[in-house]
Amino acid sequence: MNLFNVYPLYDVTPVKALNCNVWDENGTEYLDLYGGHGVISVGHSHPDYVSKVTEQLNNIGFYSNAIQNPLQKELAKKLGEISNCEDYELFLCNSGAEANENALKVASFHTGKSRVVSFKNSFHGRTSAAVAVTDNKKINAPINKQQVATFLPLNNIELVENELKKGDVCAVIIEGIQGVGGLDEGTPEFFQDLEMVCKKYGVVLILDEIQSGYGRTGKFFAFQYHGIHPDIITTAKGMGNGFPIGGVLISQKFEASFGLLGTTFGGNHLACAAAISVLVIIEKEKLMVNASAVSTYFQEQIKIIPQVKNIKGKGLMTGIEFDFEVGELRKKLIYNHHIFTGGAMNKNLLRILPPLTVTTDQIDQFIKALKQEL
Ligand SMILES: Cc1ncc(COP(=O)(O)O)c(C=O)c1O
């Protein structure tokens, strides 16, 4: 059987990985500054993580949600403490799209409404309403006709308020920092106004922190730069360091009831063991501090390169913008210098999402390669 061919792939086959490096079948070493769309938070195959996941697998790698799984409670407690979100409740699932779907369900059940407001160039996964990379018609179509999204420009609170006034909106969903679309973000004032208008019209504010969360920006969640308190926060990617797991952090004002949400695999023992290990490592190795420090160095080095037109994002969620499309540059970085980087819907943007363990030496390695190719 052939694979249903929906991804363009580079001709590299990694067989081994450690921290920020991967090796292909010929033993060639690569520097991974993209972490498979930002999922590698604590570094590839971190020894503590490998031993925790292996121990769990040898113990009980078991899936069932009809029995007690103390690891879920341990994960919720640890996540609440580290993220400073102890006043939320946690629903566990398997991916970012699933986290957003569940967040939208909670909002829709709570308000009895179904329309969603989202933002141009946002990306919330292959979800029924919240796929909003508006320039790309192929993935723009809402699948579920009952739940339709309206896409507005970022940073225009009047337009948001005009939509909310109509009375049929259940949720506004926004990324802490836009990932796939190209690292645009709301201003602090916009986020604060958004919180205010959502409260005013009884609309649920969902912060999609699937890419911008888990310490990547130097704070646990990117919205924490803006002093707001969203109703729901969604997370995935870095949460399991590659092991599929997603989470919905739900404000206590939403009442849980049996059957409201559900999942077969979500919060299984192995996923919880992986996610607990990630949090332990983030804390023990002070990886949020590292993300801030290395990103400050990174930005200083990048901004003196004359061909760089703009630097976007925060922390280790960085976009380097040029006045040309970066497709060829990315190929040269992979094949000539063995460095993985990412692209975005903004084709002039190089997207860098390294493990939070990345070092300044590795940044130097990238800068040297980039300068050579430019
Ligand atoms: C902000 C954001 N939300 C949701 C998703 C979807 O996550 P997943 O691919 O795990 O379904 C992504 C994936 O890139 C994302 O960047």
Automatic annotation (TrEMBL):
Keywords linked to the UniProt accession: Aminotransferase, Pyridoxal phosphate, Transferase
InterPro entries: Aminotrans_3, Aminotrans_3_PPA_site, Class-III_PLP-dep_AT, PyrdxlP-dep_Trfase, PyrdxlP-dep_Trfase_major, PyrdxlP-dep_Trfase_small
UniProt xrefs under SUPFAM superfamilies: PLP-dependent transferases
Pfam families in the cross-refs: Aminotran_3
CDD domains: OAT_like
PROSITE patterns according to UniProt: AA_TRANSFER_CLASS_3
Known cofactor(s): pyridoxal 5'-phosphate
GO function terms (MF aspect): transaminase activity
PANTHER family xref list: ACETYLORNITHINE AMINOTRANSFERASE, MITOCHONDRIAL, AMINOTRANSFERASE CLASS III
Family stated for the protein in its record: Belongs to the class-III pyridoxal-phosphate-dependent aminotransferase family.
Protein name, entry field: Aminotransferase class III-fold pyridoxal phosphate-dependent enzyme
Source organism of the structure: Urechidicola vernalis
Native organism taxonomy: Bacteria, Pseudomonadati, Bacteroidota, Flavobacteriia, Flavobacteriales
